[in-house]
Amino acid sequence: MTHLIKLTKMSASATKVEFVGSTNLGCSCPASLNNIVNIPRIARTPVTLATFFTTIRAADAFHESDAKQLGQLLFLELHPRRQNADVLRQKIGEMLSLMNVLRAAQGKYRFIDELLFSIIRNEMKKGAAQASFGVSTPLVALSANEAGRIGRSLVMLLMSNATGEAAVDEYIWMFPALGGLDRQFNWFRSIMDAIAAELMNKVAYGVKVRAGLGSGLSMADMISDAMVILDFRRTGNTHYASLLMCTIGLNLVLQLGFAFEQTVGLQKGRAKSFLFEALAIATFTKPGLDPWKVASGAEQPVGAAMDPLTEMFINKGLEMFTEAIPGTLPELRLFACNLSLTQSSGLVLQAVVYLRSPEKSKVAKVSLLIYAMSAAMTSSSIFYDIDVAPDKRKNNRKW
């Protein structure tokens, strides 16, 4: 086996490192076999280098990217041991003693190990219990027991936020002691962001619920719409059936147009990406796919028009726009004056037909309930995600 390392000076403080490996078996070696042997071995070298420099780097030399790297390394070392409390505690002690930045923090505040332990354990039941009360103790007086309670509460914030960064931002605002750590150590928030992002990938309970509920409601919308359209036609309300079909069609057309705009500039896999998005839109699973991409930490592809979080907001906005009260029918104008624009035209339209119809069908009742739930979830999730986004909070802290 031959491994080559090429070092290129980029600046006074940066070096580019390239690794190349090959396997010589004394005969012609297929590229697939060469990759199977060499890629895992080569991949370990950057991790080893990153671990070494992260370990020896002084606390005052840490930048945001360094701290995120440290958070990822901590997670990779600690999370596989989360099921065994004794082994996890031992590994945390080793990491704290090895890394200058963590050793300095642990020397000043003796609860850092307990905070890390509780965060990595990420226990759902205990986290739910801790969420029922807060810890208002300031940083200088915080005990190890209180630090453990703070660490266990993170899991509930991961469930209710779309991204790890938003969860950490709320986490730091919720507990004064964490706010003190954030102000005192410039690396604390970045480490927490990295750990939270990894936890969201591994155990994204809340995102799974949100994605599943969004897809479920969207699919239920599709099924109930089809049933209601058939019911309208059966009872002679063909005008309302046509109007409902138009709103559904408008929603699909606008979302397909946005998917095309989002993928047309991609440098790789343009057609494949658009077809995948179009399939999600056509099968009404897009409301579940978008939050899943956001929570998994998916980055904005090269050439994409927008990042996943903005894409999710716009898709939800398009859905709300196409469901907004059109106000074109005389019969609906009275309702349009009294109902919020975030309610769907299908909801109001079906309510009009239901109130006028002498036959109160069960299909109409179920469809009205599904429409109301879908409109409520869409509007509230849009505003919640915008309100708790860290960059939005920085611009308007009072809100």
Structural account:
There is one protein chain. This protein is mostly helical and 399 residues long. The chain has three domains: 2-56, no CATH class; 59-202, no CATH class; 207-395, no CATH class. It has 20 helices and two strands. The chain has helices spanning 31-56, 64-78, 85-98, 100-108, 112-121, 124-130, 144-152, 154-160, 164-174, 176-184, 188-202, 205-234, 238-263, 270-282, 286-295, 308-323, 330-338, 345-356, 362-388, 390-395; strands at 2-11, 14-22. Helix 8 (154-160) crosses helix 9 (164-174). The N and C termini lie far apart (60 Å).
Defining key terms:
20 helices, 3 domains, 399 residues, mainly alpha, two-stranded antiparallel ribbon
Indicate the topology:
Elements (H helix, E strand, L loop, with lengths): L1 E10 L2 E9 L8 H26 L7 H15 L6 H14 L1 H9 L3 H10 L2 H7 L13 H9 L1 H7 L3 H11 L1 H9 L3 H15 L2 H30 L3 H26 L6 H13 L3 H10 L12 H16 L6 H9 L6 H12 L5 H27 L1 H6 L4
Antiparallel strand pairs: 1-2
Helix pairs in contact: 1-2, 2-11, 3-4, 3-5, 5-7, 6-7, 8-9, 9-10, 9-11, 12-13, 12-15, 12-19, 13-14, 13-16, 15-16, 16-19, 18-19
Helix content: over 70%
Low-confidence stretches: 324-344
Order of strands, main sheet, comes to 1-2
Gyration radius, rounded = 27 Å
Task: Compute the number of structural domains.
Answer: 3
Global mean pLDDT:
78
Strand content: under 5%
**How does the helix and strand content classify structurally?**
mainly alpha
What's the count of strands?
A: 2
The number of distinct helices, counting runs of at least 4 residues, comes to 20
Principal-axes geometry comes out as globular
The end-to-end distance, rounded to whole angstroms, is 60 Å
Helix/strand order, N-terminal first:
EEHHHHHHHHHHHHHHHHHHHH
Largest sheet: 2 strands, antiparallel
Assembly state (oligomeric): single chain
